[in-house]
Amino acid sequence: MISLRELRIHGRGGQGSVTAAELIAVAAFAGGVYAQAFPAFGVERRGAPVQAFVRFDNQKVRLRSQVYEPDYIIVQDSTLIRDVNVFQGLKKGGIVIVNTEKALTYPIPEGVKVITIDATSVALKHLGLPITNTTLMGAFAAASGEIALPALEGAIRQRFPGELADKNIAAAREAFEFVKGVS
Amino acid sequence: MMEFMEGSHAVAHSVKHCRPEVIAAYPITPQTHIVEALAEMVANCHLDAEYITVESEFSALSACLGASAAGSRVYSATTSQGLALMFEVCFNCAGMRMPVVMSIVNRALGAPLSIWNDQQDSISLRDSGWLQFYAEDNQEAADLHYLAYKVAEDRNVLLPAFVCFDGFILSHTYEPVDMLTQEQVDSYLPKYTPVQRLDSADPISFGLFASPEYYMEFRYQIDQAVKGAAKTIASAGREFGEMFGRDYGDLVESYRLEDADCAIVAMGSICGTVKDAIDEMRKDNKKVGLLRLRSFRPFPHKEVRAALSGVNCVAVLDKNVSLGTKGAVALEVRDALYGQQVPVLDYIIALGGRDVRKKDIRAVVDMAGQGKGDLFYGLRQELVS
C-alpha cells in the first residue's frame, strides 16, 4: 500500500514556492488524494531562501512537523544549491527537479533521480517573467505522477484570472511534455 | 462539503456562518488572514455585519464588549502581543458576562520577539474567566466556533470564549475541511437573544463599582459559570455530533489509552504528530496513549482523572511555561491526579515555533519511562551553559 509521500520545495522569496505548494496540493486533492500544504514559517523577504511543503496520502495526514525526508524535491533556483543543502534527507529512489539551464556540477546523492529543466526560459517564453513555479508544477506532475495535468490546470485556473491562467497553463504543459520526453 | 482551504480561511468562513453582527479587529502584525477575509466579505456584502477597524487591540476588544452589551453577536481575532494588549478588556468581558467569541491564533509572546507558534498567549489569560478551546486540526478549528457561540450565549453560561488554534501550523496550512452550509449552521446556532442588554428605554448598567460586600460574590458566580459550562459543552457538542457527525461533547479525547502504560497529555496541533508517533511506538510494543484536552477552561479534572487512572506514568507536553514553576497543563493535570501515585512529568516543548517531530515524542516517552522530566525539552545546551 502506498502511504505518505512528501515534497519539499526550495526557492527564494518572491518565486512563488508557497503558491506552488498550495496549487500542487489543490490538484492532488482534486484527484482524490488527501493533501496538506504549508510553508516553512519564517520572515519572508524577497530573494531569501524559502521552503514550502506538501504531503500526499490516501488517508488523513495528522503529522504537523516540517518535511525532513522528502520523496520529492523541487529546486526553483539552482544558485540555492551553493547556500542550502537542498538534497538533505532525500529518500533513496527520490526525485529532484532542478531549474537550471546548465548541467549540474554539484555532487548528487546516490540512488536519486535528478531532472534538470530550464524553467526560467520556459516561463520567460510564456509569461514574459522569470517566475517559474507553474512551469515546475508541470514538471513535477510528469516526474512524480502525484497529480494529473488536467487537475493542475484546474488549480491554476482557480487561482489566476483568464489570460494569465492560459499563459501559466501553457508553461506548465511545455514543462510536462519536456519531462515526459526525457524521463 | 469537503473543501481544500487554508486554516485561516476555513475559520473566516465558519465565523461568517455564525452571522456576527459586529466585528472589530486591529489589522497589524500580529494579525491573521481571518479578519482580512471577513473584511472582504463585509465589503462585498457577503456578510451583513458592522466591521470596525480600530487603532489597537485594546480598542478592538473594547468595541466588541460594548457591542455585546448592546445585544449584538460579536467577533474578533488576535494573537500573541495583540492578546496581551487586550488583557484588561478580557477580564471585563468575563466579569460583565459578555458572550464574545474570539479566535486566538496561538503565537509566542515577546521578548525576545517571535512571530512563531506556542500557546503562551492564551494560556496567560487562563484566569480571566474566558472559556478556552484548543483545536487539533483545521476541521476542529472551524467547527469549534459554532460550538463556542452556542455555549457562550447559553443563559446558563454567558461567558466569553477563545477558540485557540496553532499559529502557522494550522492557520497557514492548506488541508481538506468539511464546511457546513449556512442553512446547516442556522439550524444549529439560532439568532442571538441577549438575556440583558443596554437599552435606553429600559436602562441598566454593566461592570459597575463593587464594594467589598459584593465583589467576591460576583467572582464566585463567574467561577461557577466557568465550571458549569462543562455541562453545556457536553449537550451542545453532542447536538453538533448528532446533526453533523462530529461529536464535540467530550472535553477530552482519548487515543489508544485503554491499555497504555504511559500517557501523553497535550493540546492543539501537536496531538496529530503525537498520534502518528504513538502508532509507531505501538508497532514496537510500547504501550503509549494520548489524552488530548479540547477544553482547557473549563478544565476537565474529572475526565483527566478517569482517563489516566490506569497508567504508570504521565508525560505532559506544555507549549507554554509559567516561569518559575511548570507548564500550565502539567500543573492542572497534577491537581487532577492529586492523591494518586502516578508520576506526572512535564516537558516544556516547541516554544517560539521550534519544530516537533515524531522522534521528539518518542524521546519524551523514553525520558518519562526513566523518570526524567520537569524540564525544557530539546534545549541547545551550548546556548544555556
Architecture overview:
The complex is a heterodimer of chains A (183) and B (385). Chain A has six helices and six strands, in the order βαβββαββαααα. Chain A is α/β, with parallel strands linked by helices and 183 residues long. Chain A has one domain (5-182): Pyruvate-ferredoxin oxidoreductase, PFOR, domain III (Pyruvate-ferredoxin Oxidoreductase, domain 3). Chain A has a six-stranded mixed sheet with strand order 2-3-1-4-5-6, covered by helices on one side. In chain A, strand 4, helix 2 (80-83) and strand 5 (95-99) form a beta-alpha-beta unit. In chain A, helix 3 runs antiparallel to helix 6, helix 4 crosses helix 6 and helix 5 runs antiparallel to helix 6. The longest helix of chain A has 21 residues, at 162-182. The mean pLDDT of chain A is 93. Chain B has 385 residues and is of the alpha/beta class. Chain B contains 14 helices and 15 strands. Chain B has helices at 7-17, 33-43, 57-69, 80-85, 87-95, 120-123, 138-152, 182-188, 215-244, 270-283, 301-307, 328-336, 358-369, 381-384, and strands at residues 2-6, 22-25, 50-53, 74-78, 101-106, 131-134, 161-166, 174-178, 252-255, 262-266, 288-293, 295-297, 313-318, 344-348, 375-376. Chain B starts with a strand and ends with a helix. The interface between A and B is medium-sized, with 21 and 24 residues.
Feature tags:
heterodimer, A: 183 residues, alpha/beta, Pyruvate-ferredoxin Oxidoreductase, domain 3, six-stranded mixed beta sheet, 6 strands, globular, B: 385 residues, Rossmann fold, 2 domains, seven-stranded mixed beta sheet
